[in-house]
Design a protein that fits this description.
Elements (H helix, E strand, L loop, with lengths): L2 E5 L2 E3 L5 E8 L6 E8 L6 E7 L8 E3 L7 E6 L4 E6 L8 E9 L2 H7 L8 E2 L3 E5 L2
Parallel strand pairs: 2-11
Antiparallel strand pairs: 1-3, 3-8, 4-5, 4-9, 5-6, 7-8, 9-10, 9-11
């Protein structure tokens, strides 16, 4: 069974930073698309960032336009852990943040990294609140 556990959420003032962690266990494939999503109250869940974990495209990253230049995504391969570094946080970044993982090819990850229906394994989420 694949388990996904997020951590690192909290409250921060606008302009501040947080680093979220996503620890994954039980993976049976080394070729995975690992994505961060977020959902604000009353809004649909949306893709934030993703990283591909294997092959010639290992480390390829993808970002929503709303976070480009502010968020980065990285991985600690040996630990099957993915990090989302969030800088210059804005009140509109306030949301529950979820990590999701899907065994996939690289082209699949390019096309589907931000699609909520494409991922079958999710964590429970970690809350991020940006407020003064």
């Amino acid at each position: 069974e694949v388990l996904v556990v997020e951590s690192g959420g909290g409250s921060v003032q606008p302009g501040g930073s947080l680093r979220l962690s996503c620890a994954v266990s039980g993976l049976t494939s080394s070729q995975n698309c690992m994505s961060w999503f977020r959902q604000a109250p009353g809004k649909e869940r949306e893709g934030v960032a993703a990283i591909y974990t294997s092959g010639v495209d290992v480390g390829s990253t993808y970002f929503a336009d709303s976070v480009k230049g502010r968020f980065t995504i990285s991985r600690a391969n040996a630990e099957n852990t993915v990090y989302l570094q969030m800088n210059s946080l804005k009140p509109e970044d306030t949301a529950m943040y979820y990590c999701a993982v899907q065994a996939s090819s690289s082209p699949w990850c390019v096309r589907r990294w931000s699609s909520t229906i494409a991922f079958t394994t999710w964590g429970q989420g970690t809350q991020v609140t940006v407020s003064s």
